[in-house]
Amino acid sequence: GQSLEQPSEVTAVEGAIVQINCTYQTSGFYGLSWYQQHDGGAPTFLSYNALDGLEETGRFSSFLSRSDSYGYLLLQELQMKDSASYFCAVRDSGAGSYQLTFGKGTKLSVIP
Amino acid sequence: EPEVTQTPSHQVTQMGQEVILRCVPISNHLYFYWYRQILGQKVEFLVSFYNNEISEKSEIFDDQFSVERPDGSNFTLKIRSTKLEDSAMYFCASSESSTATYEQYFGPGTRLTVT
Fold it and tell me: How confident is the model at residue B102 (pLDDT cuts 50, 70, 90)?
């Protein structure tokens, strides 16, 4: 089975940098994705790491260490609109497996 | 920008009734999914669908659930006899190819309330 651990809540100040960690235990592993979900909204894809290292997309970066079964999402220059829940999700490496298994989510609150 | 659409946005039904949730995936996408999210909890996988058949399904997706792609655009989730615990937000998602299934595009969801 799959299990993902991430902090339940994080609070950060507007303009600051915040890191949301995710550790996973999976029977197979293909890659780690990050999704953003505003209250009442749908999950929206942010980034994906299949290989070790840092992927940067604008203010958001994501990191993966396969040997440590660990990744993080880094949000820079925080804005109030970044207040949302952030989910890490893994894709299993099994043949014909396309599902994503999501973590429980980290609720980020950005304060002035 | 193309998007996944879902109807209805909110469905209220009585326990034991059948409901059909509808989705129109992005037109050039080949892989389709249903997820559900109970209020305040994580997103849970239900089923994936490719080439007109179920690819995989979770333990949640029991005999009460079925999916169908009745035509070239719609993708439906049917719950045969709803239970109180089926109350949740149901998300449809789609992805372009097998190599891009990590990037799934979600619809706005259907909030199902079973009374």
Answer: confident
